[in-house]
Design brief:
By secondary structure, the chain is an alpha+beta fold. 41% of the residues lie in helices and 28% in strands. It folds into two domains: 1-34, no CATH class; 36-111, Phosphorylase Kinase, domain 1 (2-Layer Sandwich), CATH 3.30.200. It has helices spanning 2-16, 18-24, 28-35, 69-83, and strands spanning 38-43, 49-56, 91-99, 102-109.
């Protein structure tokens, strides 16, 4: 009986957070994939490169300690920029905002 109640509690909690749902389902790699967020790159007429990267607001809850979450998000963005060779001379975050339960990072290349 107690196991059933605990299982139901976990199920209810997982409905609030897709990362938690992936963890509860026994698929930690899926949880990390969800936590990684997603990004897009844009180049304007003058060759200026900018990017946007978005995370679900609570994407790292249960995966990373709260005081390490911002550093983890910046590491995900850094991997995105490096893997696509977007900014060979470095990058910076120009704006961070909370939009519709998501964290939106807007950045540009240095140099």
């Amino acid at each position: 009986m107690r196991t059933t109640i605990i299982g139901l509690a976990l199920l209810v909690l997982s409905a609030c957070n897709p990362t938690t749902a992936a963890l509860v389902s026994g698929q930690p790699n899926a949880a990390l994939d969800l936590a990684a967020g997603s990004g897009a790159v844009q180049r304007d007429q003058n060759g200026q490169v900018t990017f946007r990267y978005v995370f679900a607001e609570n994407h790292l809850n249960g995966l990373v300690e709260p005081d390490l979450q911002e550093e983890t998000r910046l590491n995900f963005i850094g991997q995105f920029v490096a893997e696509r060779n977007i900014c060979p001379t470095g990058w910076k975050i120009d704006n961070k905002s909370d939009v519709s339960n998501s964290l939106l990072y807007e950045g540009s290349c240095r140099g």
